[in-house]
């Protein structure tokens, strides 16, 4: 038969493992797991509208995770949002790469999609992506659709 202290020790170990598992899951769900300590380089891109894009959002190319959004700031000179991204050094993109803000599924999370260009020179630390496409705002699309329908002449 197990002594009381040994039983308490095993219960404590079990609780600690459970707590560690919960912390691990919370980190995964919150996108706090980085790029597994890999070397990265930073680039930035200006957008007219970032929609619901958040810091730590994925940066993908062809559906593959290549980086994460590092920070988002508002440029008071151009009145645009500037998104800084951390890209894994294993992935080099041409200097004429374009960036778009996309949505996973109909109401899913927003992420940045990079589409490689054809330039010979690659993007380097601190470079700026100049070709950008802002987020599609569902409210604007619905409003535009309703406005277009209201402007149509009535069918007789």
UniProtKB/TrEMBL annotation:
Mce/MlaD domain sequence ranges: 40-117
What PANTHER family is this protein classified in?
Answer: INTERMEMBRANE PHOSPHOLIPID TRANSPORT SYSTEM BINDING PROTEIN MLAD, INTERMEMBRANE PHOSPHOLIPID TRANSPORT SYSTEM BINDING PROTEIN MLAD-RELATED
Question: Where are the membrane-spanning stretches?
Answer: 7-27
Point out the gene that encodes the protein.
mlaD
UniProt key word Protein biosynthesis: no
Q: Which UniProt keywords apply?
A: Membrane, Transmembrane, Transmembrane helix
User: What Gene Ontology molecular-function terms does this entry list?
Assistant: phospholipid binding; phospholipid transporter activity
List the InterPro entries: ABC_MlaD, Mce/MlaD, MlaD_Phospholipid_Transporter
Under NCBIfam families, the record lists: OM_asym_MlaD
What protein does this entry describe?
Outer membrane lipid asymmetry maintenance protein MlaD
């Amino acid at each position: 038969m197990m002594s009381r202290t040994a039983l308490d020790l095993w219960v404590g170990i079990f609780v600690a493992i459970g707590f560690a598992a919960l912390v691990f899951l919370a980190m995964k769900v919150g996108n706090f797991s980085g790029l597994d300590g890999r070397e990265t380089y930073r680039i930035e891109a200006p957008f007219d509208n970032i929609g619901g894009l958040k810091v730590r959002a994925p940066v993908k190319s062809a559906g593959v995770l290549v980086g994460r959004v590092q920070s988002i700031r508002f440029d008071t000179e151009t009145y645009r949002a500037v998104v800084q991204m951390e890209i894994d050094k294993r992935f080099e993109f041409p200097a004429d790469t374009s960036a778009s803000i996309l949505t996973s599924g109909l109401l899913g999370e927003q992420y940045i999609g990079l589409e490689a260009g054809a330039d010979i020179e690659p993007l380097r630390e601190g470079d700026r992506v100049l070709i950008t496409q802002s987020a599609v705002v569902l409210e604007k699309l619905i409003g535009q659709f309703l406005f277009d329908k209201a402007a149509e002449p009535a069918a007789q």
